[in-house]
Amino acid sequence: MVEVTLCWSLQPRKVHELTVSVAAGSSVQAVVEQFIAGQGHVLSSAESAQLKFMQPGIWNRKVAWTAPVHAGDRVELYRLLKVDPKVARRQRFKRQGKGRTGLFANRKSGSAAGY
């Protein structure tokens, strides 16, 4: 048996972390399934179903559900992005207005906005 840490976040700023003992050579999928079977009372049925659709990773690197886990690994489940980060940045910049804030606050006189 090896111990791994399982981390997930179903809501922003609310991270859950739990240590799970699994058989040596188990996959990420086996770790999540064993957690749901053994600790199902912690989560509702809808929340436990959501865990199966999240992107898995080990130590901040995305992996496949079939990837083996080793002793001391941190298995993480990532939520899907709702908004592309590039699009969100463009929208924030547009709301702030051109040339008034941030990097472009002190521009040369006579230059175009954003330069």
UniProtKB/TrEMBL annotation:
InterPro entries: Mopterin_synth/thiamin_S_b (IPR016155), RnfH (IPR005346), RnfH_sf (IPR037021)
Organism: Limnohabitans planktonicus II-D5
Protein name, per record: UPF0125 protein H663_004030
Pfam entry (one): Ub-RnfH
SUPFAM superfamilies registered for this protein in UniProt: MoaD/ThiS
PANTHER family (UniProt xref): UPF0125 PROTEIN RATB
Region described as Disordered: 91-115
Recorded family membership: Belongs to the UPF0125 (RnfH) family.
